[in-house]
Amino acid sequence: MLLVKAVLPILRDLLATFVFVALFWTVGVYPATAVGISLIVAQTLYMHFRGHKIGALHWLSLVLIATFGGLTILFHRPHFIMIKPSLLWFALGVVMLRRDWMEPYLPPFVVAHLEERQIAKAGYAYAALMFVLAVANVVVVKLFSPNFWAAYALLGPTLAQAVLFGIFYLCFHKQIAAGMRAEKQKAAA
Prior knowledge:
The chain contains seven helices and no strands. The protein is an all-alpha fold. It is elongated, with a radius of gyration of 19 Å.
């Protein structure tokens, strides 16, 4: 159940990106951008009226999408919306430079079986990835076609984050499992 709760926001974000990219490829950047702005505004209103807490990251996304999407439509320049992910990745990287940012997102049993410095190092690795993604997005925007950028925007960051998650899972799984086994043996004794 914890995995489902952790994955749902990621899937919701991926779905929004998928819808944007699908519209980008089928009807063009301007309708896709207008729908993207409408979706983030509708999602925010829904969350507000349902009494859900709206986190800082969601507000940041709303501001960036509305601002850069609006500039894209107003000036007929797709580069505004294409550069938006770099700003978001950079902002996330800055937030992730805090030593303790990751702990609230981890299940209690993970925190109980890892050292604080291990969690902090994992958090810094995620921050570094965000900065790499920010730069990579700028490079893709500058060097490749908008259609290539759309494919990259959907797949590149998703795959990079999945790989980093997999690395940490493999690195920490054995230690966490050993700690949990030791606790069970201690409780049984």
